[in-house]
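Support request from a user on the community tier.

User writes: "When I paste my structure tokens into the form, the page sometimes reloads and wipes my input. The last time it worked, I copied everything first. Here is what I submitted, just in case something in the input itself triggers the reload:"
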């Protein structure tokens, strides 16, 4: 079970009345949210304080990709924030072990020339590479297989077979992903199964077992869709693995089917991250570091609000930062919002063992959650999550002086969001009251 957790460091105790109402002259409704000192709407690519590029500093020594709400993908250069109308994508470091997922070396024709390092076992059918196109920003190749089959399967290998595969160890968790579309007639009933598969090999390159994913045949349409598969090599002497796409059918049957493949990826990790383009070798996408370029030192009493969309599956244990304020690049003397697995209500987050936490509702990936937090600078921390106020503020001593603010990460930049941060608002010297917290979290 995943829960949203807001935690504060170096804490003490006080009554909830400390956050009862902030007096703001000129506001008829005391629950009207005052203008924040910093407001960045990443999804709208707008800030009243000026250009977002001048307000944040991005550190990522590699290119990266991100998608918009319509499913179009974009590539971003080194140290360029990955901002689309979904927000800013902030992810951990990952490596795509598929050496060539952009069709380098491919030539159309029958049979045509496969992308370098790929392999196709058509098992008696005639292979045609129909086209090489970019679809929704994704590099794709379109194939047709037709004829009488000599076996009960056809496959496309992306990483090489045997000792030409990817070095792996038993117990590692790998996630494969691929964009796939049906560009011909319906697969059923001639084809029974379409699946992603990881093959295991020993140090001599001998096959020692296959790990097949779910049958996705009913989910493959004429729209390019990304599919993922997570598995763990189980055979004790596994030394290499291969990632492939399999089509299963009756041996000796007559087949005529087509498919479009885009950006195959195999990464060491428990879930798929954004696509990492490769051309001739494995590529590392560095972690995103996002911090405000400059900021005044927040007062003892301050507030903030965020909206974010976690992408990590709920079955994965995680502690993913949404935003953090800290005195130093460590876990001491901090306030932060994070996506936490099975979070307890109280955490010790300071060197002296004191701490407090507010646990929110169970969350689901792909859903946008609003969180508003207020530190009164005396003794309490309060929060509202998706318009729900937690009526019993937790004990909290002043945190500061704050000199470390991270977007989409814990203090120091670890424990990344692995999702989209939609917007951020910070009130550096204002303590929002209960009604304002509710409004700011909507």
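"...and here is what came back when it finally went through:"
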């Amino acid at each position: 079970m995943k829960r949203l957790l807001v935690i504060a460091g170096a804490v003490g105790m006080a009554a909830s009345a400390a956050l009862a109402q902030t007096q703001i002259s000129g506001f008829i409704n005391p629950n009207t949210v005052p203008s924040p000192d910093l407001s960045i709407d990443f999804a709208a690519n707008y800030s009243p304080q000026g250009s977002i590029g001048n307000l944040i500093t991005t550190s990522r020594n590699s290119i990266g990709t991100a998608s918009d709400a319509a499913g179009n993908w974009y590539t971003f250069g080194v140290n360029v924030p990955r901002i689309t109308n979904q927000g800013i994508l902030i992810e951990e470091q990952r490596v795509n072990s598929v050496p060539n997922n952009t069709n380098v070396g491919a030539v159309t024709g029958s049979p045509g020339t496969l992308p370098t390092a790929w392999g196709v076992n058509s098992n008696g059918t005639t292979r045609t590479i129909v086209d090489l196109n970019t679809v929704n920003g994704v590099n794709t190749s379109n194939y047709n297989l037709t004829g009488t089959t000599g076996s009960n399967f056809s496959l496309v290998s992306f990483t090489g077979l045997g000792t030409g595969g990817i070095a792996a160890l038993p117990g590692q968790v790998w996630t494969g992903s691929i964009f796939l579309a049906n560009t011909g007639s319906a697969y059923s009933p001639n084809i029974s199964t379409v699946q992603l598969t990881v093959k295991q090999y020993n140090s001599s390159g001998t096959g020692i077992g296959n790990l097949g994913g779910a049958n996705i045949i009913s989910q493959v349409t004429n729209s390019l869709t990304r599919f993922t598969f997570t598995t763990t090599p189980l055979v004790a002497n596994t030394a290499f693995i291969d990632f492939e796409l399999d089509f299963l059918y009756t041996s000796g049957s007559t087949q005529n089917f087509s498919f479009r493949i885009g950006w195959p990826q195999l990464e060491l990790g428990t879930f798929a991250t954004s696509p990492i383009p490769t051309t001739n070798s494995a590529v590392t996408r560095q972690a995103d570091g996002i911090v405000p370029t400059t900021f005044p030192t927040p007062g003892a009493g301050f507030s903030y609000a965020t909206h974010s969309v976690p992408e990590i599956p709920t079955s994965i244990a995680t502690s993913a930062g949404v935003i953090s304020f800290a005195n130093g690049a460590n876990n001491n003397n901090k306030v932060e919002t994070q996506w936490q697995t099975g979070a307890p209500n109280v955490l010790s987050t300071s060197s002296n063992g004191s701490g407090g936490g507010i646990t929110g509702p169970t969350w689901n990936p792909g859903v946008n959650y609003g969180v508003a937090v207020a530190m009164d600078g005396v003794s309490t921390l309060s929060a509202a999550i998706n318009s729900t106020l937690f009526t019993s503020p937790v004990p909290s001593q002043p945190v500061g002086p704050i000199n470390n603010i991270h977007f989409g990460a814990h203090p120091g930049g670890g424990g990344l969001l692995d999702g989209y941060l939609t917007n951020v608002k910070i009130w550096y010297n204002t303590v929002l009251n209960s009604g304002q917290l509710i409004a700011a979290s909507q």
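Agent notes: The reload is a front-end session timeout and is unrelated to the input. Residues 31 and 435 are 5 Å apart (CA to CA). DSSP finds two helices and 31 strands in the chain. Escalated to web team.
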